Every structure is written in C-alpha cells, then in structure tokens.
Amino acid sequence: MASRAAFLAVAALGLVIGAGSAVAWMGRGLAPVGGGWMGSRVAGSGEADPWTRARVALTGLMALNRHQALYFVRRSDDAGHPLVDRCRYRLSGGPLPGRWWSVTVYAADNYLPQNDDHALSVDATRVHPDGAGRWQAIASAREEPGQVRVSTRSAGQFDLTLRIYAPTAAAQADLAAIVLPRVERIDCGKGAGAGAGAGEGA
Amino acid sequence: MRRAARLGLTFVVALVIGHVGTILAAPHAIMAVAMARLSQRGDVVNRFRFAPRVDGASRSVVRPSPDLAYGSCVYDLAQGPIRVRAAATADHGYGLIAVFAANTDTLAAFDTLTHPQGIDFVLALPGQPVPAGASVVRATTTRGIILDRRLAPDAAAFAAADRARAGDRCGPA
C-alpha cells in the first residue's frame, strides 16, 4: 500500500513539474532573429511544431502566418537591459518590408498597458521618415513634446511587438535579413513611470 | 535499488507526459477560452460581433493591436457550412479576414489587396456539400474563429472601417 502511494506521489510530482516546465517554456517567447528581436517563420501556420504553436497560443493568439504578417517581439533594449516603464527609449529604423507596420507596447500580462494616453503604438502612418526612409519615435511614460511617442505609462516591465503586414516575399523567406528597428535607452528616472499602476505588470 | 529505479522511471515518464500533454493541450484550451469570450459563452455563434476601438481596457484576446478594428465570428459547422462575406473598406483601406481552427492554425486568409471588391467564401468541413461555384475553405475542426482585421490607426480610419464591417456576414450557407 505504502509502495503504491509512493508511486502515485512520484507520478503526480512528475506531472506537475512537467506541466510547469511546459508553461515556463511557452512564456519564454520565440527564437532570436537578431538585434534583440524574437520571431518565427512558422508562427500561425500549420508548419508550426507543437512547441511553437503553444507559445503563440499563449502570447499571440490568432497570429497570422508569414504570408499575411510577420511578428517580432523584444523584451530588452539594444544593451540587453529589460524594457521598463521608468526608462525612456529611442526607437529608430528604416523602411520595413511590408505594406504597413506598427510597434506596440504590451505589459507582462500580454495585454496593453492600462493607461489612457491614446498612444499605445506607433505605426507607419504616424512616423515622419526622412529622405532615406529613416524614422524614430520615443517610448516613454511621459509626454514628449515634438516627438512621435508610444506610451509606456503603467506598462511595468514590458515588451515591444513589431507587426509587418503584407510582407515582401524576401522578408518572408529570411527573417534575419530584415533590418529591424533599434531600441536605445535614453535615460531612466525614479519618477519616469509615475502614474496609476506604474511599475506593476498591469 | 530496483524500487528506486522504478520510482525514478515513473517520475521521468510522468514528467514527459505532463510536459508534452500541456504543450499539446494548451492551444486548444486557450482557443476554447477565446471562443467562449467572443461568442458570449456560446450565445453568439455563426454571427459577426464587432469590438470597439482597442485601448488599454481591451481584454478579450491577448495582444490586441490598437491600430486595427476587429470583428469576430465564432463558427460552428456541426449543422452545415457557413458563408462568410466582408465588404471592402472605402478608399482602399487595408483589411484581412482569417479563418482559425480550434488548434490556432490559420486555415485561410483573404485580404483586400487580392480581393478589392470584398471577400466571399464558404467554410465547410470535409465532405459537407457546398454551393456550386463558391470559393470554399475546408475546415479542420468543427469550431473555430473567423477574424476580421481592418487597418484603423486613427479615429477617422476606425469610423470608416466600422461602417464597412457593418456589412460583414457570417451565417448558414
């Protein structure tokens, strides 16, 4: 009897740890594609392996496949520091290979930050590219006069998601060849994330 | 010694079952939650519902884009195929209709670049009869979600997308 109970306990422990490891794996995000960004050629498609499918289900449900859209996520700046709402960041890049693109802030719970700044993303229609197509925006919890801004207020430790809709065939074929936007930390301050829920996972 | 080995083997087997089982079940479970939310616990099936403009309070599905206007139809093909129609947004606004199976796979997607006059197709399970001449998408699961995304990065674009998507239809073929 004691022996059977021991086996059941060990089996239950194994199941719980196995399930926990799966959930932890799903939360890790997709594979690195360069420049601090993560992505996948097979997200949203029938080609995805079960692990990729599970990761996408948890953190990007109903993602389109690469023929319609490419998705990239990053959780750190160019220096490798986690993105946090008490710091300001400069987003910069050149033309992106698709019909339309956007960069959106998501809190750690995979939803938008709960603020009313009406600036939860920056997209191709809002930036002001120069003659070479280069653009920049600021990710900040506070207003940035004269700048295109995406609000990180109440985002806590956040990530950035880049969507490229109707990507070119070349981009679909080789994600690593896409020159993805840079994210440089400008500065940090104790009060930079001030506001309701600042510093929380939202 | 043998008992310890058997306990160890039991642990490893259970660990693998727990890990792989969770990985395989997660997409179905997460989609089931999304279908319940989007269909208002099953009350609105085979009919489009349209979300208000996305903001920080949007919580129906993870990672909504504040630049898109969303419409969703939770489908159930148990009683037969459905026909899906979506009008194009005025002024060539970009839009896309995608069909998702219950395991999250994209079964088909149609955008306004390739269908500037609007999107019209029949969704059916393998073997279900479909109207002659219809564009047909074969589903791999009886239930799933059809999602209408329209580019709407500002209030004016959202209003235009909202007017266009009001003509969306999702119902028995």
Low-pLDDT segments, ≥5 res of chain A: 191-202
**What is the CATH fold-level name of chain B?**
Immunoglobulin-like
CATH H-level superfamily title of chain A: Domain of unknown function DUF1214, C-terminal domain
Averaging pLDDT over every residue of chain B, what do you get?
Answer: 92
The run of helices and strands of chain B is: HEEEEEEEEHE
Taking the sheet with the most strands of chain A, its summary is: 6 strands, antiparallel
Distance between the termini of chain A: 48 Å
Radius of gyration of chain A equals 20 Å
Strand order of the largest sheet of chain A: 1-2-3-9-5-6
β content of chain B, as a range?
A: 25-35%
Helix content range of the residues of chain B, please?
25-40%
Helicity of chain A, as a percent range:
10-25%
Q: Based on Cα principal axes, name the global outline of chain B.
A: globular
If you consult CATH, what is the topology of chain A?
A: Jelly Rolls
CATH architecture of chain B: Sandwich
Number of strands of chain B: 9
Total helices of chain B: the number is: 2
Largest sheet descriptor of chain B = 5 strands, antiparallel
Q: How many extended strands of chain A?
A: 10
The proportion of residues in beta strands of chain A is: 25-35%
For the record, the count of structural domains of chain B works out to 1
